[in-house]
From TrEMBL:
PANTHER family in UniProt: CMD DOMAIN-CONTAINING PROTEIN (PTHR35446:SF3), SI:CH211-175M2.5 (PTHR35446)
Domain Carboxymuconolactone decarboxylase-like: 51-114
UniProt protein name: Carboxymuconolactone decarboxylase family protein
InterPro entries (alphabetical): AhpD-like, CMD-like
Pfam families: CMD
SUPFAM superfamilies: AhpD-like
Native species: Paraburkholderia dipogonis
């Protein structure tokens, strides 16, 4: 059990409140992981800025969820896997592709497979991708700039995944159906 508090808008440090309000507007609720991030106004402010940039980039929301779910599995963050499972399914990823990612396998969809493989490899190899790995991503129809954009998504999810592992926020009831263990 975590000793970190899950803050609400009322209980959060003053500088964290605007971000919590923004997340509530985006999701209709404040994810528990954001409630724990609110402990640090510096962290939650940096996270929201990166989160906004990632979601306004060149990838579709389904592609972003492929990346975020793969990152959560690769980093073994149980909260984030459940959360991004729900979002991936809502964005139209097939249940079979979601199940594959959750099991550490490659999704069947060619583009989602390329995204999942590149981000997983980048995390596992700490960014030391070789020409073959980058080339496989490009051959799937992506551009060179998107190789680097994958890293921005990985940075955002690293924040979430590490916070989840450290603070162990409770999983919201609506995500219980997607609970996952490493």
């Amino acid at each position: 059990m975590s000793t970190f508090q899950v803050y609400t808008i009322d209980s959060a440090p003053e500088q964290s409140k605007p971000v919590l309000r923004q997340l509530r507007q985006t999701f209709g609720f404040i994810p528990n992981i954001a409630g724990t991030m609110a402990e640090s106004p510096v962290l939650i402010s940096a996270f929201i800025q990166l989160f906004q940039k990632v979601h306004s980039g060149t990838f579709t929301e389904a592609q972003i969820q492929t990346l975020l779910l793969t990152n959560a599995v690769t980093n073994a963050c149980t909260w984030a896997v459940a959360f991004h499972t729900a979002l991936a399914l809502n964005e139209g990823l097939t249940p079979a592709d979601v199940d594959a990612i959750r099991a550490g396998r490659t999704p069947a969809d060619r583009k989602h497979a390329a995204l999942s493989t590149l981000t997983k490899t980048a995390i596992q190899k700490r960014g030391h991708l070789d020409e073959r790995e980058v080339g496989a991503f490009l051959e799937a129809g992506f551009r060179r700039d998107q190789v680097l954009e994958v890293l921005a998504v990985a940075a955002a999810s690293t924040i979430t995944n590490y916070v989840g592992s450290i603070t162990q926020p409770p999983l919201e009831e609506q995500f219980q159906v997607h609970a996952w263990t490493a």
